[in-house]
Amino acid sequence: MSSQLSAIDLLKLGDEGRKKPFLNQYWSYIMGVAFGLGTGVFMNFGTRRPIMSGIQKHVIATVGWCGLLTYVQKYRDDYLAEKDAVFRHYIELHSEDFPVPERKKIADILEPWVPIR
Fold it and tell me: What predicted TM-score, i.e. pTM, was given to this entire model?
């Protein structure tokens, strides 16, 4: 079905009924916790203290990393949405440059196989 759609139809499909995968939704929090705890452990290791001492460092680093990575994800989502909007607008203005692709069978695409012995 989608191979017979034009470029603008493919861009207009949208996200209806789609759900982001688990890791795509929560990667910033997972990595924030890992980097935050790692930062606290690294700081304690560098100052020759027990690894989990000064738990406030771990908490502050975790909150900081989670906030930073959430901001980066939001910025990335906004950038990609703007990029898609620019593509969509260009395709709407220049639809003659984007013809509907012709349907091909796999047999037409593959070259004949000749065994070399």
Answer: 0.72
- Tell which phi-psi region holds residue 14, choosing left (phi > 0), alpha (psi between -120 and 50) or beta: left
- Cβ 43 vs Cβ 57: under 8 Å: yes
pLDDT at 44: 95
Structure tokens at 99: 């013809």
- The answer to whether 45 and 19 have CB atoms below 8 angstroms apart is no
The single-letter code of the amino acid at 66 is C
To which residue do tokens 């100052």 refer? 47
Q: Is 104 left (phi over 0), alpha (psi -120 to 50) or beta?
A: beta
Q: Report d(CA 49, CA 34) in Å as an integer.
A: 20
3-state secondary structure string across 57-69? HHHHHHHHHHHHH
**Cα 38 from Cα 34, distance rounded (Å):** 6
16-67 pLDDT per residue, tens: 777 888 998 999 999 999 999 999 999 999 999 999 899 999 999 999 999 9
